[in-house]
C-alpha cells in the first residue's frame, strides 16, 4: 500500500505506554500512519489543528479538557475529521455523549489489534462502527426522546438499529432485509446524524433558555 | 462473583410510611372531634338543666323547641359523623348564632348578664368545629360571628346597647373573646397535629430511604471489595508472568491464554460494577441489564458475551432472576452445541413488552420443535420455555444452518405506557400512596 493511502491517525491518551502500544499495533498493519500524539484534551484540540489527521483515536477520560468536550471542539473546527473513541470503561453516558457530539464509533480498549485496525479503516471510509451495546443505548435514547420534537427514527432505521444491537454484521443485516450493505451503512449514518442533530437542538434550546442567544 | 450489581429486592417488612403519618393525623383529628361532640352533649344537658331550674322563661315552647332541635342536630352529628365540609360548618354556625339570638328572646327581658345564659356553652362548639376543620383563621372568624350574634341576642332581650353601662359591654366583649379564643386555639391545635403528623411521615420515609440506600451501598461495597481483591490477584499474576516472559523464560501458550482470559474476566467485572452509577430503581425492582451483565460476567470460556440494553429496565426482582436464569441456560446451550465465538445479549422495552435476545454466531440449525420432541431433544429448550411461560411470556427461536441462532424471550412489561417515570404499576403512586411506597 502506498504511503498516501495510509490512514493518518492521531492518538490521544494520557498513558504514554498505552499510546506506544496503540501506535505499534496501528503501524504494524501497514495501513495506518500515526502522525501525531497528544496526552490531554487541550493538547488534542491544538495538535489536531496543526497535524490535520484524518482520524482521531482517543480516550474519553483525559486531563485538562474532558474527552467529550475535546471531540466537540475538534469536530467543530474540522468537520471532515473522524473520531473513534477508545474507552476502558465503556461508561455509557460518556460514550453516548461522545457519539452525540460527533464521534463516529467506539471500541473498548481490550479490543484486539486486528479489531482496532479494522475499525480505523472502516471509520475513515465513512462507515460508523456501532458496537451492539452502543446500538442498544442509542435505541433506548431514541425511545426516550420519542414524542418530543426531536427527529425520530423511521421504522426501517429502528429495525436496522435493533439488528445491530443483536450483534448482526452489516452484511447479515443486508441479507436479512434484502437490501445492499451500502444501504445499511446509510441507515446507520442517518441514525447517527439524527442523534447529533438532537444534541444540537438540545444545546440550542438550552442556549435560548439561558438567554445566551441574545448576548 | 454472583449477580454483580443486581439490586436486591426491597427490604421486606419496611413500615408503611405512606399510611403511618396519615393515620397519626387522622387519629388526632378523631380524638378532637370526639372531644367536641362530648362538649356539645354536656352543654346541651346543662342548657336543659338551666331551662328547668333557673327560673321562668318568656317563651317556654320556643325554648323547648330549640332544645329539641339542638338535641336532634347533636344526635345526628354523633351518629352520622359527617365530614366537616363548608355547608355543614355553615349550618352549624347558623344554628349556634341563632341560639345566641334565641337566648335573648326566651330569657325574661333585660336579664342577660344577670342570670345564667340560656344557650350555656353550646355556641362555643361551632367556633371550635370551625377551628378544628379549617384552622386558626376560620376559628377566629366563626368566633367573631358568634360575638355579633351575641350582641343581637342582647338587643332581642331588650338591652339598649348604646345606653348600657360598661359592665354589660364588657360582658359582651368577654363573651366574644371567649368564642374567638376557643375557635382560634383549637384551630392552632389542629394545625399543629397535622404538621407533626406530616413531619413524622416524612421522617419515616426518609429513614426507610436511608436504610435502603445503606443496604445497597453495603452490598455494593462488599462486591467492590471482592472484585478489588480478585483484580489485585490478577494484576499480581500478570506482573509476575510478564516479568518471566520479558526474561525470555519458557511460558506455555496455554498459560498465556489463561492469563488473558483471567484479565478479561476482571475487566468485565470491574466495568460492570465500578464504572456505572448505582441506579436507584423503585423498591422491589431489579435492573434487567444488571442481571444480564452478571450472567455475562460469569465468564464463558472462549465465548465472548456482550450485553446491550435500551436502559436499566426495571422489573420485579423475581422476573429478573427468572430471565437471567433462562439466559444462563441458553448460554449453556450455546457453549455445548452452537460452536459460536460471540454471543450478544440484548434487552429492550418495546410497546409494553420486555424482550431479551440471545444471539450467537454459531453454526445454527433447522428449528423444528415437533421433530426435536420426537427425537427426545427438547429438554433444555423446554426448561427455558417453562421459566419464561411462568412469567406469562413466550420464547421464539430463529435459526438457519450456518447463520447462527437467535433466541428471544418476551415477557409483559408490568409498567404500562403512560407511565414515563418508569414506576411499576404495582407500586404506582396514588392518593392513598403519595410516595409510591409498595404495600
List the helices and strands and how they pair.
The complex is a heterodimer of chains A (215) and B (439).
Chain A: E1 7-12, H1 16-28, E2 32-38, H2 41-51, E3 55-58, H3 67-77, E4 82-87, H4 92-100, E5 105-108, H5 113-124, H6 132-145, H7 155-165, H8 170-177, H9 181-210
Parallel strand pairs in A: 1-2, 1-3, 3-4, 4-5
Helix pairs in contact in A: 2-3, 3-4, 6-7, 7-9, 8-9
Chain B: H1 17-53, H2 60-80, H3 86-106, H4 122-134, H5 136-156, H6 166-246, H7 253-274, E1 285-287, H8 288-297, E2 304-309, E3 314-316, H9 317-338, E4 342-350, E5 353-360, H10 369-374, H11 379-390, E6 394-399, E7 405-412
Parallel strand pairs in B: 2-4
Antiparallel strand pairs in B: 1-3, 4-5, 5-7, 6-7
Helix pairs in contact in B: 1-2, 1-4, 1-6, 2-3, 3-4, 3-5, 4-5, 4-6, 5-6, 6-7, 7-8, 8-9, 9-11
Task: Tell me briefly what this model is.
The complex is a heterodimer of chains A (215) and B (439). Chain A has 215 residues and is of the alpha/beta class.
Features:
heterodimer, A: 215 residues, alpha/beta, Rossmann fold, 9 helices, 55% helix, B: 439 residues, alpha+beta, Heat Shock Protein 90, two-stranded antiparallel sheet, 7 strands, elongated, disordered N terminus, disordered C terminus
Amino acid at each position: 500500500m502506498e504511503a498516501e493511502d495510509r490512514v493518518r491517525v492521531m492518538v490521544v491518551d494520557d498513558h504514554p505506554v498505552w499510546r506506544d502500544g496503540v501506535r505499534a499495533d496501528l503501524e504494524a498493519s501497514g495501513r495506518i500512519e500515526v502522525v501525531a500524539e497528544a496526552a490531554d484534551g487541550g493538547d488534542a484540540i491544538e495538535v489536531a489543528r496543526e497535524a490535520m489527521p484524518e482520524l482521531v483515536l482517543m480516550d474519553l477520560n483525559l486531563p485538562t479538557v474532558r474527552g467529550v468536550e475535546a471531540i466537540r471542539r475538534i469536530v467543530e473546527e474540522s468537520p471532515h475529521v473522524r473520531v473513534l473513541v477508545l474507552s476502558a470503561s465503556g461508561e455509557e453516558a460518556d460514550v453516548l455523549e461522545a457519539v452525540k457530539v460527533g464521534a463516529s464509533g467506539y471500541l473498548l480498549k481490550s479490543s484486539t489489534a486486528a479489531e482496532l485496525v479494522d475499525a480505523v479503516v472502516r471509520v475513515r471510509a465513512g462507515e460508523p462502527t456501532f458496537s451492539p451495546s452502543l446500538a442498544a443505548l442509542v435505541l433506548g435514547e431514541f425511545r426516550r426522546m420519542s414524542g418530543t420534537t426531536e427527529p425520530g427514527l423511521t421504522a426501517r432505521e429502528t429495525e436496522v438499529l435493533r439488528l445491530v444491537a443483536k450483534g448482526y454484521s452489516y452484511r447479515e443485516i443486508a441479507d436479512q432485509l434484502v437490501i445492499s450493505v451500502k444501504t445499511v451503512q446509510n441507515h446507520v449514518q442517518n441514525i447517527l446524524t439524527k442523534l447529533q442533530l438532537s444534541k444540537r437542538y438540545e444545546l440550542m434550546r438550552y442556549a435560548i433558555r439561558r438567554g445566551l442567544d441574545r448576548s | 462473583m454472583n449477580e454483580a450489581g443486581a439490586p436486591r429486592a426491597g427490604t421486606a417488612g419496611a413500615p408503611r410510611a405512606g399510611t403511618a403519618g396519615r393515620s397519626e393525623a387522622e387519629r388526632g383529628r378523631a380524638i378532637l372531634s370526639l372531644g367536641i361532640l362530648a362538649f356539645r352533649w354536656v352543654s346541651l344537658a346543662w342548657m336543659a338543666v338551666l331551662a328547668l331550674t333557673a327560673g321562668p322563661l318568656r317563651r317556654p315552647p320556643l325554648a323547648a323547641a330549640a332544645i329539641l332541635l339542638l338535641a336532634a342536630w347533636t344526635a345526628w352529628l354523633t351518629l352520622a359523623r359527617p365530614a366537616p365540609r363548608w355547608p355543614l360548618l355553615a349550618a352549624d354556625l347558623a344554628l349556634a348564632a341563632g341560639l345566641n339570638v334565641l337566648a335573648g328572646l326566651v330569657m325574661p327581658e333585660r336579664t342577660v348578664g344577670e342570670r345564667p345564659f340560656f344557650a350555656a356553652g353550646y355556641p362555643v362548639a361551632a367556633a371550635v368545629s370551625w377551628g378544628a376543620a379549617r384552622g386558626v383563621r376560620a376559628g377566629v372568624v366563626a368566633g367573631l360571628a358568634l360575638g355579633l350574634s351575641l350582641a343581637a341576642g342582647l338587643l332581642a332581650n331588650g338591652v339598649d346597647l348604646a345606653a348600657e353601662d360598661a359592665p354589660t359591654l364588657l360582658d359582651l366583649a368577654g363573651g366574644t373573646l371567649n368564642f374567638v379564643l376557643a375557635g382560634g386555639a383549637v384551630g392552632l391545635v389542629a394545625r399543629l397535629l397535622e404538621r407533626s403528623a406530616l413531619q413524622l411521615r416524612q421522617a419515616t420515609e426518609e429513614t426507610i430511604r436511608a436504610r435502603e440506600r445503606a443496604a445497597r451501598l453495603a452490598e455494593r461495597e462488599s462486591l467492590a471489595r471482592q472484585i478489588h481483591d480478585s483484580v489485585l490477584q490478577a494484576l499480581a499474576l500478570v506482573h509476575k508472568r510478564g516479568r518471566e516472559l520479558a526474561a525470555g523464560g519458557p511460558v506455555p501458550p496455554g498459560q498465556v491464554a489463561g492469563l488473558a482470559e483471567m484479565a478479561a474476566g476482571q475487566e468485565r467485572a470491574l466495568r460492570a460494577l465500578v464504572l456505572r452509577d448505582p441506579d436507584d430503581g423503585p423498591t422491589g425492582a431489579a435492573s434487567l441489564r444488571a442481571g444480564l451483565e452478571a450472567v455475562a460476567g460469569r465468564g464463558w470460556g472462549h465465548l465472548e458475551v456482550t450485553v446491550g440494553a435500551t436502559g436499566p429496565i426495571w422489573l420485579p426482582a423475581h422476573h429478573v432472576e427468572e430471565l437471567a436464569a433462562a439466559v444462563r441456560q441458553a448460554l449453556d446451550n450455546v457453549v455445548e452445541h452452537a460452536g459460536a465465538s460471540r454471543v450478544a445479549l440484548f434487552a429492550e422495552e418495546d410497546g409494553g413488552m420486555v424482550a431479551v435476545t440471545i444471539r450467537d454466531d454459531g453454526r445454527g440449525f433447522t428449528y423444528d420443535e415437533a421433530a426435536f420432541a420426537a427425537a427426545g431433544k427438547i429438554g433444555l429448550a423446554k426448561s427455558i420455555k417453562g421459566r419464561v411461560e411462568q412469567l406469562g411470556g413466550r420464547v421464539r427461536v430463529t435459526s438457519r444452518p450456518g447463520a447462527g441462532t437467535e433466541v428471544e424471550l418476551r415477557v409483559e412489561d408490568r409498567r404500562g405506557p403512560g407511565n414515563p417515570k418508569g414506576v411499576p404499576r404495582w407500586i404506582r403512586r396514588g392518593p392513598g400512596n403519595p410516595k409510591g411506597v409498595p404495600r
